[in-house]
Specification:
Layout (H helix, E strand, L loop, with lengths): L1 H17 L2 E2 L4 E3 L4 E3 L4 E2 L4 E4 L2 E2 L2 E2 L4 E3 L4 E2 L4 E4 L3 E3 L4 E2 L4 E3 L1 E3 L12 E3 L2 E3 L4 E2 L4 E2 L4 E2 L4 E2 L4 E2 L7 E5 L2 E6 L4
Parallel strand pairs: 1-4, 2-5, 3-8, 4-9, 5-10, 8-11, 9-12, 10-13, 11-16, 12-17, 13-18, 16-19, 17-20, 18-21, 20-22
Antiparallel strand pairs: 6-7, 14-15, 22-23
Length: about 180
């Protein structure tokens, strides 16, 4: 138990000295609106963007990512309101998470329409498979698993495994 406590303190110290590792990002916008734990690791080609203003409308964006979360290459997170990712989350490559969508009113030109926004919350110890898309307004409960190529359009309960487009529960686990 003592060794584990010492190791945890050393890892926390090392992480606090280095800050999050974001390997050759493609695009980062609005860093001042991001709270990324120092132990987070994100692979190359990430696009992290906080949208504070769009088409004359002001937003209060926030991206938060918890301790020991890892993401592979080409992660895209877009926030006009809030995207919250818990601790110990594993995110595979080419995952997209967005708390907003462009409105598509048929009586107006496509360019210049406002955004619809709703927060996205991803709990602790979640796994998001390759090419997953998480839609605005979705909450994914702790210890959930999202299969590759899934489109998550509805909330996912804790300990559930979902897959598909749209994602559906294929297995429900039991909480500890």
């Amino acid at each position: 138990a003592d060794q584990a406590a010492v190791l945890e303190r050393v890892q926390a110290w090392a992480a606090s000295q280095m800050g999050p590792r974001i390997d050759r990002p493609l695009f980062i916008n609005g860093r001042q609106h991001m709270d990324i734990h120092p132990s987070v690791s994100v692979g190359f080609g990430a696009r992290l963007e906080c949208i504070a203003e769009y088409n004359g409308v002001t937003y209060q964006p926030k991206i938060s990512i918890g301790a020991h979360t890892t993401a592979e290459f080409f992660l895209h997170i877009g926030a006009a309101q809030e995207v919250s990712i818990g601790a110990d989350v594993m995110i595979a490559g080419h995952v997209s998470i967005s708390d907003h969508a462009h409105l598509m009113k048929s009586d107006q030109p496509l360019h210049g329409q406002h955004l619809a926004v709703a927060p996205v919350r991803i709990g602790d110890s979640v796994f998001l498979g390759e090419y997953t898309f998480v839609k605005m307004g979705v909450t994914i409960g702790r210890h959930a698993i999202v299969g590759a190529h899934s489109v998550v359009t509805h909330n996912v309960p804790p300990y559930a495994t979902v897959a598909g487009a749209p994602a559906r529960i294929i297995r429900q686990g039991v909480e500890d």
